[in-house]
Amino acid sequence: MAITHPKLATYTPSQADPFDATKAAHLMNRAGFGGTAAELERVLQLGPQNAVDWLLDFPDAPAEELSQDDMPDLTSVEGYPRNFREYRKLLDMKSREERMELQQQFQAANREAVRETMAWWVRRMAYGPFPLQEKLTFFWHGHFTTSARDERSAMLIWEQNECLRRHAGGNFRAFVHNISRDPAMLDYLNNTQNKKQRPNENYARELMELFTLGIGNYSEQDIKEAARAFTGWAHEGESFVFRKYDHDFDDKVFFGRKGKWDGSDVIEIILSRKRCANYIAAKVWAYFVAEPVDDQLAAALGDVLYDARYDVRPLLRTIFTSKGFYDPKVIGSQIKSPVQLVVGTIRQLGLEMPSVGQLRGALEQMGQVPLMPPNVKGWPGGRLWVNTSTLFVRYNTAVWLAGGEIPVAPGRRLMDRAMRRRGQSNFKPDGGRDADAVVDAWVTTLIGRPIGDSQRKLLREALGDRPDREENVRRMVQLIVSMPEYQLC
Q1: For range 433-448, the mean pLDDT
Q2: CB 188 within 8 A of CB 206
Q3: Which of 32, 173, 251, 429 has its CA 20 to 30 A from that of 121?
Q4: Distance CA 378, CA 166 (A)
Q5: pTM value?
Q6: What would you report as the CA-atom Rg of the chain, rounded to the nearest whole angstrom?
Q7: Cα–chain-centroid distance for residue 148?
Q8: How many Cβ atoms are within 10 Å of 135's Cβ, its own excluded?
Q9: SS3 sequence, 61-96?
Q10: What is the structure's pLDDT at 108?
Q11: From CA 291, how far away is CA 226, in angstroms rounded?
């Protein structure tokens, strides 16, 4: 398919517009949570096309399938099984009445289990080998929203998180079908209460308004008919069930089409509309590149997704290799979300994860706790991340995180690159590192864009005459993360 919008033309490096450290950092910031020194060096070596292929090369599988030990550790939660696998085994051994009693027994510990699950996910974002998969999982978490504040089962919240991860870069059609059967989603939007005698419209409405079409692209009658189609869709424990005695088997007229539609039919009718592809593709662009997205760009992006039969990877590859993605106006224009700020700082500095309480407290003060979006619309983001109270917390959190043990230099190759730019060898005659090269290397890693001369002077002074001393480097790094530029990516 020919690209029909200039922003989607493929970016090709040239002498006048090279693929440099700034662009490499931009790719890792947007397609992940910021790159480590080693990752930035690898991206520079691969080039823009191959680097995107490398980032997209993650398995379409939940974390548990990748590693049998990769699930939240619940040993610190009093009265709870050690992990969700043992929880499943307990439920499988019990009768229906015993399972209900067991689940009620665990409700007292459920809040703490959610906290541990949240911390587990943040660790995956910070230390995991597939940064784009986790970034996509987080994106879809804000799209197919469910909040642990309303869901009584930590296990169902974790199961949904695994569903988001499994479909993160896969097929959107399969994704919608699966999320519509997800127990946590069925609870959150009240579809377990959706019965023929009393249809509940919550899921049908949000399916169209937020998940697939966007407001204004359906009628109230379409909502009523779709709600009837989803009657009887419920769950028992972690398993989807179809309660046929609660389902409305009569004819429905949905988007002008008459039939004995069920929920799966409704989803297919929605997906057949090009408007769905435009809406989803534009939302992906807005998250990973920039807002606003005009109708022409949305249609061109929608063409890519629709022609790929809703496979997401071709859309992602088009976006991350496009001229629009590397537009100078786009680079460094996005305010980091609290999760991006915290995860990126930990990841780029190679820090140990704070305790669950410290982590939750910092994120809560900044307005974004994973697994707990404020409502079905997810987090608003953008400029709303920053106000007089949150800005102070954001600066303090970054400085606090950077106070941990950090390396004297971010990476040998970045140091070598910085030294070559200055026409110097890596080490001064007295054995100390060159201060200007240390500043360059850390600014490249943490900000990825040029900073002002006055800021460079401040960082240089923080190093003093011993740029090889850890405490001096730490002080300089804390100054970098307290700069306004660090709040942007």
Answers
A1: 91
A2: no
A3: 173
A4: 20
A5: 0.94
A6: 24
A7: 17
A8: 23
A9: CCHHHHCCCCCCCCCCCCCCCCCHHHHHHHHHCCCH
A10: 82
A11: 31
